[in-house]
Amino acid sequence: MDNTVFEVLRTYDYENLILCQEKSLGLQAIIAIHDTTLGPAAGGVRMYPYDSEQSAINDVLRLARGMTYKGAASGTNLGGGKCVVIGDPKHDKSEAFFRALGRFIERLGGLYIAGEDVGTTAQDMEIIGLETSHVFSLPAEEEVAHFTAFGVVQATRACLQHIYGSADLQGRTVAVQGVGAVGSDVVRRLVEAGATVTVADTDQDKVDHITKTYPVTSAHPDEIHSRPVDVYCPCALGAMLNERTLPELRCKIVCGAANNQLANEGCGDRIAQHGILYAPDYIVNAGGLIAYADGRHPTGFSRQRAMAAVARIYDMTEQVLALAKEQDIPTFRAADRLAEQRIASVRQAKTLATGFVGST
Ligand code: NAI
User: Fold this and answer.
1) How far apart (Å, rounded) are the C-alpha atoms in residues 295 and 314?
2) How many Cβ atoms from other residues are within 10 Å of residue 166's Cβ?
3) How far apart are CA 281 and CA 259, in angstroms?
4) CA 48 to chain CA mean position, Å
5) Closest residue (by CA) to atom 27 of ligand 1?
6) Which residues are within 8 A (CB) of 344 and not within 5 positions of it... i.e. 6 or more apart?
7) pLDDT for 201-254, tens place per residue?
């Protein structure tokens, strides 16, 4: 980033960038608030040994903005934010460390709500929760990945309907890349719905476990994306839709949980030219966020209500695909457009109600 920080904040219309430090603990964290038009800024706490302050700032800004789009497109009343902690999650964690971070979050008075992310766990969130109520949590018996997985299957059904005129998974072929928390539950749901599933994971123990548990076959992790299937379902890492993999895809649909699947916007523009329908990642994987949002309901978490809200990922996907078709634009741009429209209309309503738009 060659521009000054303020130039970047202005370009993408960020609200706040907050630096937090606690010398005695070596805590250095950065919280970015992108947009709170729809509600408090939601976003995970990422802990990573960034090689420079600038790379940490770049990351927190990029991720916070992404959360604004995800919150808006998923129909939640949440804005976009993120927190990055500069440190090694293997060596730098302690109770005091996360309690100190919790106190910083508390001082923001609910502007930012923290959640798990790369390098942090539900246990870390519990410690943060000792100092602030502004942290996402679900009842102990609930697994956030299960809500995410349900949303992935709902989005997959919407894509099948769009391509084949039927949302039925019976007899459809799906290649699932990564069978961790989300991927393994996606596999369970697909198998129960009658799909023929192939899996791959770099962790052989996980592959062994899933192939013993369900009637699925496995493929090498390097070639799972090139299987001739109806649906390629990425549930591992990001950027797997890149210059190298795009020409190798032999699926009709890409629909999976992984974040940031497109290596760059050019890949998003080109994937349709390969005759492939790409379901935008942040619509597909919003189930976890939707469940967390339900946990903040005044009457507490309701599994039934959360599942009903996650089920609507089917309609959201349908809406995005319809807009992309109607305006002849790539699906990822259609998703962005819907999110931007929702934020703009709520901002407009606030202006009308108060005659004043706060924060920006
Ligand atoms: P996880 O860490 O439980 O599972 C990821 C799996 O991918 C692991 O089993 C890992 O061994 C495997 N993997 C890594 N590299 C691979 C490769 N090159 N080929 C095949 N397998 C590989 O993570 P989780 O929670 O299941 O999340 C999966 C993806 O979904 C991530 O990108 C995550 O950011 C995203 N996501 C997860 C949500 C959740 O509720 N857990 C919510 C929204 C997005």
Assistant:
1) 21
2) 11
3) 6
4) 18
5) 182
6) none
7) 999 999 999 999 999 999 999 999 999 999 999 999 889 999 999 999 999 999
Q: In the beta sheet, which residues pair with residue 21?
A: 28
Cβ atoms of 50 and 84 within 8 Å: the answer is: yes
Q: Domains of the chain (ranges plus CATH)?
A: 5-67+78-128 (3.40.50.10860), 144-340 (3.40.50.720)
pLDDT of residue 237: 86
Q: Is the pLDDT of residue 2 over 70?
A: no
Which amino acid is located at 249 in the chain?
Answer: L
Summarised one tens digit per residue, pLDDT across range 135-144 is 999 999 999 9
Question: Which residue in this structure is represented by tokens 């009709």?
Answer: 252
**Residue scoring higher pLDDT (349 or 88):** 88
Q: What is the pTM assigned to this prediction?
A: 0.93
Mutation test residue for ligand 1: of 70, 182, 282, the one with most atoms within 8 Å of CB: 182
Closest CA to 54 of 20, 5, 6: 5
Catalytic-labelled residue, pool 23, 70, 82, 93: 82
Residue 360: the pLDDT is 47
**Residue 252 among the catalytic residues:** no
Contacts 24+ apart (CB under 8 A), 28-31: 28/85, 28/86, 28/87, 29/83, 29/84, 29/85, 29/86, 29/101, 29/104, 30/56, 30/57, 30/60, 30/83, 30/84, 30/86, 31/60, 31/81, 31/82, 31/83, 31/104, 31/105, 31/108, 31/112
Ligand 1 pocket by C-beta < 6 Å: which residues? 144-145, 148, 177-183, 200-203, 206, 221, 235-238, 257-259, 285, 288
Angle at CA of residue 206, ends 201 and 208, nearest 5°: 105
Cβ contacts of 26 within 8 Å, gap of 6 or more: 87, 92, 97
